[in-house]
Amino acid sequence: MNIIYLTTSFPRFSGDYAGVFVYDLAKSLVDDGVCISVVAPHTERLAYREDMAGIDTHRFRYFYPTAQQKLAYGAGIPTNLRRSWLARLQIPLFLLSFFWKGFRLAKRGQVIHAHWIEPGFLGLLLARILKRPLVVSVHRFNPMGQVGRLLYRWVLPQADYILFNSSYTQRRCLEYLSVKKSGIVPPGINLKKFPLKWNLPQQKDTCLKVFALGSLLPVKGFIHLVRAMPQVLEIHPQCQFIIGGQGPEREALLTEAEKLGVAHHLQLLGRVPTEDVPKWMCEADVFVLSSVPHVSGDNEALGMVLVEAMACGTPCVASRTGGIVDVVDDCVNGFLVSPGDSGELADRIIQLLHDESMREQMGQAGREKVEKRFALDVIAHQVEDIYTQLCA
């Protein structure tokens, strides 16, 4: 099979987190004998065409000089559009370049697979012109503004198959519109990159560690984790809280920790390279994702960091919101708590820190769930089956 991927985000270099789950899926399919060609935006100092571990990667230039291409990557297209008038100016050129590069490749493809709704718009045009089946992966359903609503209403009902990353995303979409065929296919995780912590040499460390990872944004709820710290430290005074990620909330987190008198127990790592994530997950005794709903009503679509933690055998405490409930089974592989409730969050962290056997039991249950539901080879086989159905 020859499959064409259309995406606005794809790794630019080794260790880049941009669109890494798109790359991982493509790589797994290539290893299984599927031919994958990717169309993605160009950025400065990148090759226009590159073989990335067997993935035929094509990058389209949409502005000159290339250093002034402002629309893709960085903080993401929505944020780039808000921050830069030049990014807004580049939209027509971006779409035209994307379409032309996609058209040239899709002529020899059997299936067009668009990741996110914006490439889905171009994918639908190409699918109708070239009479190819269209698959659209919806990683988040949040139709903001009139243009966003029109895109969803036009693209998704006409696509041949919709892949939703979680039951939450699927439910939100199907409440809003109808589609031909759909299924829940979350991003897969390469278990070779996430070893089970018990299989690693054990380091003597008397300090318990609570780890959290994500963009430092209000919706990630890190402020509630900081506010839970004093209660946890009353019981476990040597516990260290480690947060990885970048974002505008950094100073607010430090200020809150200082106000609560717990700053010396808080470590902000900044950006964590993808290759370092398994190390931090394995070293953690508990992983926390304390997301809260956005003011728009949108929630955490899935929470892949939870899957990564569980793959390493680390039990999780997470907010009972959005797609998180697809990952964490309450009292089985972790605990679910009310969003924004620092007290309940602290209680569940204390419970896990206090009971090593519980941590091991939940960690094992988490690893087993990841192997059955989120392993990359499992996801790749599901996606390949869908391609085969559409090509029949």
Description:
- The protein is an alpha/beta fold and 392 residues long.
- It folds into 2 domains: 2-188 and 375-391, Rossmann fold, CATH 3.40.50.2000; 192-373, Glycogen Phosphorylase B (Rossmann fold, 3-Layer(aba) Sandwich), CATH 3.40.50.2000.
- It is 43% helix and 17% strand.
- The protein contains 15 helices and 14 strands.
- It has helices at 20-31, 77-83, 85-89, 91-106, 117-130, 145-155, 167-176, 222-235, 250-260, 277-283, 304-311, 324-327, 342-354, 356-374, 376-391; strands at residues 2-7, 35-41, 49-52, 55-60, 111-115, 134-138, 161-164, 182-184, 209-213, 240-244, 266-270, 286-289, 316-319, 334-337.
- It has an 8-stranded mixed β-sheet with strand order 3-4-2-1-5-6-7-8, with helices on both faces.
- Strand 7 (161-164), helix 7 (167-176) and strand 8 form a beta-alpha-beta unit.
- Helix 4 (91-106) packs across helix 5 (117-130), helix 5 (117-130) crosses helix 6 and helix 8 runs parallel beside helix 9 (250-260).
- It starts with a strand and ends with a helix.
- 46% of the residues are buried.
